[in-house]
Design brief:
It comes from Candidatus Rhodoblastus alkanivorans. This protein has about 270 residues and is α+β, with helices and mostly antiparallel strands. It has helices spanning about 5-15, 25-35, 45, 55-65, 70-85, 185-195, 245-255, 260-270; strands at about 40, 90-95, 110-120, 120-125, 140, 145, 150-160, 160-170, 170-180, 210-215, 215-220, 225-230, 235-240.
Length: about 270
């Protein structure tokens, strides 16, 4: 299949050497390996750079270039890989609720997620929610707590609208809401354009990164480095002192080189 994706290069990038089959074991293995190998990062919107959704460009950036990306890039790449393996995958869109107070109006569809059919039943797959990375596919089973290595998640449904929540130290926190309406590439183009260019979108003014390593989540939020244990329990939090510290943090905990001088990245925060 000539879709611009090198399957062998992707598998090497995530460190997967086992068998591949359209079953739950493969889906879970690839999902976990992906989030542990490819960090979430939205540095290009912060730098005012365009974010392409063309698969060859995404492959060059996340696989060959050993960068990270945000939800549209991550989940478009993962969708293409799963389809290559033989899965039936439907791209969905979510309305992010992570920073919204209870009862706030719903915002636009600015998040991409996947519905994946496996012999064991449909599963939600999402390797690109950077506020709380999901490290395993979740069953489309509502009202049931689902524990993964790094978190506990709860899927709810009311009148055809699904809500995904994550357990946090303060209790359940809404991640996003979505329906089962399949999205077109043009739908993602609009969401990606808003998310990567609008001054109302958080990624154009904030440095946001997350990576799962071992039993810890590493997060950069502007000039703060946060390390979390399971279910969002903060283990360490400290300031990123300067550009040199930011560059070293990216290399050490996120496995990537800064895509621009670290001084430039810091200068763009809040600009």
């Amino acid at each position: 299949m000539n879709d611009g994706i090198g399957l062998d290069a992707y598998l090497a990038r995530i460190g997967h050497e086992g068998p591949l089959a359209p079953d739950l074991a493969t889906l879970a293995t690839l999902h976990d390996a992906h989030v542990r190998a490819i960090p979430f990062e939205a540095i290009d919107p912060l730098l005012g750079r365009p974010v392409s959704l063309d698969l060859p460009v995404i492959h060059d950036k996340l696989v060959a270039g050993r960068r990270g990306g945000y939800c549209f890039e991550q989940n478009l790449l993962f969708k293409a890989i799963l389809e290559r393996v033989g899965f039936n995958v439907v791209g969905l869109a979510g309305r992010v609720r992570w920073m919204s107070p209870p009862g706030a109006p719903l915002g636009p569809r600015t998040h991409m997620l996947l519905k994946v059919d496996a012999p064991e039943g449909p599963h939600l797959a999402d390797v690109g929610f950077g506020a709380c990375l999901i490290d395993a596919p979740l069953r489309f089973a509502t009202g049931v707590e689902q524990r993964t290595t790094m978190g506990t998640f709860l899927l709810l449904e009311s009148e055809g609208i699904y809500e995904l929540r994550a357990k946090q130290p303060q209790g359940w926190r809404s991640m996003y809401v979505f329906t089962l309406e399949a999205q077109l590439p043009s739908d993602y183009m609009l969401g990606n354009w808003f998310t990567s260019t609008s001054p109302l979108a958080p990624f154009t003014k904030n440095l946001t990164m997350e990576h799962i390593v071992g039993d810890r989540r590493w997060k950069i939020v502007n000039r703060r480095l946060v390390t979390e244990a399971r279910d969002g329990e903060v283990a360490v939090e400290r300031d990123i002192a300067d550009a040199a510290s930011l560059a070293e943090t990216m290399r050490t905990h996120f496995g990537m080189e800064p895509p621009a001088p670290a001084e430039e990245i810091l200068a763009r925060i809040g600009a």
